[in-house]
Design brief:
The chain is mainly α. The protein is built from six helices and four strands. Strands 1-2 form a two-stranded antiparallel sheet. Strands 3-4 form a two-stranded parallel sheet. Helix 3 runs parallel beside helix 6. The longest helix has 21 residues. About 20% of the residues are buried.
Amino acid sequence: MDVGSNPALAALTCFTCFTGFGRTDGMPMATQEQEDTAVHAAMVAADADLWAGGQPCTFDALLDYWGQRVADVEEGYAWCLADFDNEIWSRTTLADVWPLLPPHFRSAQQPRLDELDERFRAATIEWPGRSGEEQWWLRRFPRLLGIEPGDSYDGGWPAGWVRMPFPKPDAVRVIT
């Protein structure tokens, strides 16, 4: 991307290069205000600074949103496949923002992201025949699917998941 064509990315590049942010060679570290500015610039550059409704979105809120989605999947995902696909957008957005973040900030956040990703992997199953590391979260589905009491269920995929292109694996449990 041409840095000159994107003011937020240009500001982030200048900040990272010229303030010594994240340096270990004796250069001064950035202040909290400078770090906040750089993180916001990364969010803007990745077009991630606003929620779908137009409200401001911070990096912490984005990471928290991913954490909430992980918790939903761990508890038993009760919505349909289309909702699941829609709700994991936050992990894709984190992947877009991640390389634009200041290195020091990124390394400080890495343990939390790794922990959430590991929990998501543990709570999901890889699609048969769709492995790979790039955007791996898009090729997974919940191990535990919730259905409403009284909904019909015949032992296969619950309603909302029947468009899955393969039979429900035994490792997927459906709960009420």
